[in-house]
Amino acid sequence: MKKFFGGRYSVRNVEKRKNSKRSVMSYEDVPLDEYNDDQPEISKEAVKRILIVVGVIVLLGFIVFAVANRDAFSPEKFTHWVKYDVVGASDTEFPVSIIGSNVNSGNFKSDGDVMYVSDTSFVSVGSNGNEIGYSQHGFAKPILCTEGNNVLIYNLGGNGFVTGTKEKLNKPKDTDYYVLTADINDKGYYCVVTQADGYLSKIFVYNNNKEKIYTYSFSDYYINAVALNSNGTGCVACGVTGDNGSLLGIAYVLDFSQEKPTATYSLDENSVYSVEYFNSNTVCMVGSKSSYTLDIRGGNLKQIDYSNMQLTAFDINTDTNSFVLSLSRSGDGRTCSIEYINGAGEIVNVNDTNLTIKSIDLYKNRIAALDSDTCYVYDTDGRKIGKANAGNGSKAVRLGNTNEAYILGINELRRIVQFK
User: Fold this and answer.
1) In what order do the strands lie in the sheet with 212-218?
2) Residue 74 domain-assigned?
3) Are 238 and 313 within one domain?
4) Final residue before a domain boundary, out of 305, 323, 347
5) Angle 111-116-120 from CA coordinates, rounded to 5°
6) 293 and 281 in one domain?
7) Residue 287 forms beta bridges with which residues?
8) Is the pTM value of this prediction over 0.85?
9) Ramachandran quadrant class, 169 (left: phi over 0; alpha: psi -120 to 50; beta: rest)
10) Which of 270, 286, 305 finishes a domain?
């Protein structure tokens, strides 16, 4: 009862608390008005200095982050991020803008989809214009090699290469010496040819687990074109050397189970631009003055001489085991003849035209030829199927199917959907 009538809850004490000057207390049992009066005030100048220090720390942290991730802040990467991640663009139709400032005609490929390497990036695009893959590279002179879904890009005359697929590239690898050429097959085996101490060139071969399985050093020739066979057991390497002011060419046949080449073939005064396997036994080589087919098992090298005509364009089709040449009859790139050649090295058809052909492509029984800004299509018997406007600044053509083509322009990819 004492607590009820005389304690803190009694009426008398309630009235007493109402009349008390200190109705609210701090944790230190000091009136809050006195407590607040005792706190020092921070001057506006001090606040300003604190904000400046914090701002400098944040800025320095951002600079360190940007330097550590400078590749991600390149103009091309930033543009790509804005276009696809921020804006949400899908590029569902052509034309498609090229990423980078330049694409060489040889770095423009098609297997139904389109792949290209610019001075900054590797990009693959689907048949409806949608982006399939995108990766940046740091090569000064990139060269693109493709086979099926596999991709290899090497830095010609520089150090380094990168492998991957049309969807994504792997991490680049450095080489000890300058790269001369390279290749990849449909199983993911690849080879890289470089310069070497004490030799003119050296080949390094890797399996699809990126394990080195073979090396060979060339003492007399610079290797400038190479092709792996489909099962990764051998290759053909073509090279050049100088002899009293003349250029001499050679082809080596290498079996990776053998220490030395199984055969060599003289190519006279000829530099090979491209070499491809038609099958495990037959190889096609396109050179500056002649082309060849090689029967490896029989040791038979067949020559297709250009008869002093100038090669302006070519394409090798490993699906049909055939290839096509554009040869200028006037020697200045005009009035080109289109020669269609089978896997046995036999000229099946010659079609004389008045075109100035700068790019040519072979797909099944169709041949596409690009003359200035017009694309023409012929069948392999030489009959004209039709033509279409390729657009201003057209540089190269690749057939998507028998009546559709992709065009490489200066700053965009285009698609021709019908020839008339």
Assistant:
1) 179-184, 190-196, 199-206, 212-218
2) no
3) no
4) 305
5) 160
6) yes
7) 272
8) no
9) beta
10) 305
Separation of alpha carbons 22 and 30, rounded Å: 9
Answer yes or no: do 199 and 210 share one domain.
yes
Residue pair 405/375 in contact by the 8 Å Cβ criterion = yes
User: Are 90 and 130 contacting, i.e. CB atoms less than 8 angstroms apart?
Assistant: yes
Using the CB atoms, write b or e for 66-75: b if 16+ within 10 Å.
eeeeeeeeee
N residues, the chain: 420
Both 197 and 296 in one domain: the answer is yes
Q: Which of 375, 414, 416, 413 is nearest to 118 (CA)?
A: 413
Residues forming beta bridges with residue 408, ordered by sequence position: 396, 413
Q: Is residue 249 part of a domain?
A: yes
**Which tokens hold the place of 161?**
């290469």
What total number of domains does the chain contain?
A: 2
Task: Show the CA angle centred on residue 330, arms to residues 327 and 335, nearest 5°.
Answer: 65
The SS3 of residue 199 is strand
Please tell me what DSSP assigns to residue 82: I
pLDDT tens figures, 63-104: 766 655 554 454 544 544 454 445 444 444 899 999 999 999
Same domain, 196 and 314: no
Condensed to tens digits (0 to 9), the pLDDT of residues 360-405 reads 999 999 999 999 999 999 999 999 999 999 999 999 999 999 999 9
In a domain, residue 339? The reply is: yes
Do 324 and 412 lie in one domain? The reply is: yes
Mean pLDDT of the chain: 87
Question: What confidence category does residue 32 fall into, taking pLDDT thresholds of 50, 70 and 90?
Answer: very low
164, 111 Cβ separation under 8 angstroms: no
Place of tokens 């495990």: 280
d(CA 40, CA 104): 71
C-alpha to C-alpha distance for 320 and 113, rounded to whole angstroms? 18
CATH of the domain at 203: 2.130.10.10
Measured CA to CA, the distance from residue 276 to residue 284 in angstroms comes to 5
User: For residue 316, is it within any domain?
Assistant: yes
How far from 324 is each of 155, 292, 382, CA to CA, in Å? 28, 12, 12
> Domain of 369?
307-420
3-state SS assignment for residue 327: strand
User: Torsion angle, CA of 69/73/77/78, rounded to 10 degrees?
Assistant: 140
Is 330 found in the same domain as 291? no
CATH, residue 372: 2.120.10.30
| Residue 287 shares a structural domain with residue 192 | yes
